[in-house]
Amino acid sequence: MGHSARLNFPAAAIDVYHAPELVALGLGGLVISVLGALMPAGWAARARTVTALRTE
Questions:
Q1: What confidence tier does 53 reach under pLDDT thresholds 50, 70, 90?
Q2: How many alpha carbons lie under 13 Å from residue 34 in its C-beta half-sphere?
Q3: Using CA atoms, how far apart are residues 49 and 55, in angstroms rounded to an integer?
Q4: How confident is the model at residue 31 (pLDDT cuts 50, 70, 90)?
Q5: From CA 56, how far away is CA 45, in angstroms rounded?
Q6: How many Å is the Cα radius of gyration of the chain?
């Protein structure tokens, strides 16, 4: 976007994260999303079907 507006940003402002940090952030997001999905799924598996459907 900066190049299309004919602005030249320094590399220090654009290259904030390196490849290992990006991989770690991606994996961290994946772990958080899986843990966030397992808690409601575990509750729904233990609950009665009618109760689970009513809370939807």
A1: confident
A2: 6
A3: 10
A4: very high
A5: 14
A6: 21
CB proximity list for 27: less than 8 A, separation 6 or greater: none
Tell me the two tokens of residue 44.
């729904």
Share of the chain above pLDDT 70, in %: 98
Helix (H, G, I), strand (E, B) or coil at 34: helix
CB-CB contact of 31 with 37 (8 Å): no
CB proximity list for 14: less than 8 A, separation 6 or greater: 2
Per-residue DSSP letter, 1? -
Residue in the structure block whose two tokens are 């994996």: 27
Q: pTM, whole model, 2 decimals?
A: 0.56
